Amino acid sequence: MFNTDDIIVDKYQLKQRLGNTATGHQTWLAIEQLTQENVTIKLLAFSPQMQWEELKLFEREAEVLQSLKHERIPKYRDYFDLDKDLGGGIAWFGLVQDYIPGSSLQELVDRGKIFTEKETYNIAVEILEILIYLHELNPLVIHRDIKPSNLILGEDNHIYLIDFGAVQAQGAVTGVTFTVVGSSGYAPLEQFWGRAVPASDIYALGATLIHLLTGISPVDLPHKDSQIQFSDKVNIANYFTYWLEKATNISLEKRFSTAKEALESLQKKRTIIQSETFRKKLLQPNYSRFLVTKTDNKLSLYLPPKVTYKMGNTSLFITICIIAAVTLTFFPFSLLVLLFVYQYCKDMRVVFLEKAFKIQRTIFGLTYQSINASNDDIIGVFLYGSSNNHQVKIRTKNRSYIIGENLKEEECAWLAKEIQDWLYYHQ
């Protein structure tokens, strides 16, 4: 029906079909001819197959959007209709909004992205702030279709809420409406009964966050007593697990009733957990040789050699030179010398920045290993070993990196937690 570069209502030039839409629905990226700005156009075909309720929802979306003024909701621009002569024998209705460059969270998940706890927390905060705005309007507005495909991660790294096609606006949410809307896996039970309330949007947000953390759609996750089972598939703080379980509780009475309550709970529990983590902070053992320096954007760990030397007063250095000279005559001893140098004269420096980390090992000031890797690739920081031979391993998507060797368990646990805590607060 419509093609790229078509100009409709003498104002908008179609540039690209966006996403997958239902039968009789089309969504386009277009250019407004007058301003040369990018816009999004949603088109609805008024065909014999269309349910009358679809047009009512489309008109309601346009009406509600005109009244919304929020920086994370694409702004309403225009509403129009095309008669049959211009629409290929079918009447069409169009809704125009600002275009938000970026990717939907669904697109990112489909590409294999698993969101970190911090990323998911930040998304939750931004969406809850939008929901507070919507739910406190008079009349209040319930979105009714929050899910990853309706959340855009903009190029400015902020989250935008789109597609108000299922929106419900009314002065007081009472009685039952038989317009059943919402997406399976994200819509709570009361919504399918036609009784959506503000807490219904909170359920959908919680289910969406679980999807981002696990990479699995809520409908494909196990359920017990209609409750989504996800805790064994994520590695997040306990407070966040409890929060998600409450947000997605099947019982309205046990769920957060307002977005403001949900946001306050999320922020308060995180603050409590952070303060408790600080109080329980592991101390560096007295015997540990690690030198640690921390700033707002840098963590530096330095493990000096087990024996040191100074070029101006170098008894150890002279001793090594003598042993090295002897090995030229007595070759079998050369391996022993090399082992001695490797065990007692090497040092290691590990530096974590906000986006990457570097591991550098040297002997007598000469670098024999230098590794650079991205923090985004880190899967976890773990303690390995037995008896007095422990080590810390940083596992990434492609390999593992050892930090420290032959450490005692107490020192290894402290070191691992120092790294874990720094990464957690700087992701």
TrEMBL record:
InterPro entries in the record: Kinase-like_dom_sf, Prot_kinase_dom, Ser/Thr_kinase_AS
Transmembrane intervals: 316-342
Signal peptide: none
A GO MF label: ATP binding
Keywords, alphabetical: ATP-binding, Kinase, Membrane, Nucleotide-binding, Serine/threonine-protein kinase, Transferase, Transmembrane, Transmembrane helix
Name by which UniProt lists this protein: Serine/threonine protein kinase
All copies of domain Protein kinase, residue ranges: 12-273
Coiled coil spans: none
Domain of life, source organism: Bacteria
